[in-house]
Amino acid sequence: MPAKRSTANPLSEKIGTVRRRISLAAIRGGRNPGDIKLIAITKTVDIEQVKEAWDAGLRMFGENRVQEAQKKIAESRKWNAGSKMQWHLVGSLQKNKAKYAVQLFDLIHSLDSSALAEELNKQAGKIGKIQEVLVEIKLSPEKTKHGIPPKELIEILKTVQHNMENLRIRGLMTIPPFFEDPEKIRPYFRELRELRDKAQAEGFILPELSMGMSHDFEIAIEEGATMVRIGTALFGERISRL
Ligand SMILES: *Cc1c(COP(=O)(O)O)cnc(C)c1O
Fold first, then answer.
1. Mean pLDDT per 10-residue segment, the chain (242 residues)
2. What is the per-residue pLDDT across 61-95, written as a single tens digit (0 to 9) for each?
3. Interior angle at CA 61, CA 60 and CA 67, nearest 5
4. Ligand 1 centroid vs 81 CA: distance in angstroms?
5. Residues whose CB is less than 8 angstroms from the CB of residue 235 and which lie 6 or more positions away in sequence, other chains included
6. Which of 41, 134, 185 to mutate to test the pocket of ligand 1 (most atoms within 8 A of CB)?
7. What is the pTM of this model?
8. Which residue out of 15, 109, 213 has the highest number of ligand 1 atoms within 8 Å of its CB and is therefore the one to mutate?
9. Cα 211 to ligand 1 centroid, rounded to whole Å
């Protein structure tokens, strides 16, 4: 008998595959699969596919540009009003867009300077919001453009905790350099986790580690990721931009 596959939704199959891979990686790492959040990265993906992903059960979405996100979020509000859909900003944020970012995003993964923190704090205050953020850490100076050097983490944690009442730092994020062999990326994920552990030992509460993309998310999970940011493995190859 022919299988029912032909009528299946390929996106929901991909979601199922990614979820299984997440669970297996969690188990290998001695972790609870339920502790890992799948953030579907929808940059360049059209709104119909976002809707399909929503219908298939995904609830957390990520974009890397404010302008593109703005349109999609407005569209998505038509069918998810009052529901639990979350939008995250994973790309770098310019200060002059902070005002829009606080209106749009449940979580900003890319806090990469104290100047940006100040601006986000100010803009969040204006709309009466506590903005949740992750600190983006630059682990390889030569290869990634954005993020704070590890040695400056404690300082920014203190500054935000003492002076910025509208910002809440929930954890750390990193974009490691690319290697064809994802095993070579493992030390970067481990470094982020160790950095987090050190900050926690100093009394800061940082439950989230946003690390791992389509190419390397299983290794990130083995090393402690709580949020994986996945585009290609769900929606296919993008035409060009990162
Ligand atoms: C595009 C992007 C992703 C997703 O990358 P894939 O390789 O398509 O899974 C994750 N994080 C950030 C910051 C991105 O810009």
1. 55 97 98 97 96 96 97 93 90 97 98 97 98 96 80 98 98 95 97 98 98 98 98 89 50
2. 999 999 999 999 999 999 887 778 999 999 999 99
3. 145
4. 26
5. 11, 14, 40, 42, 45, 49, 53
6. 41
7. 0.94
8. 213
9. 10
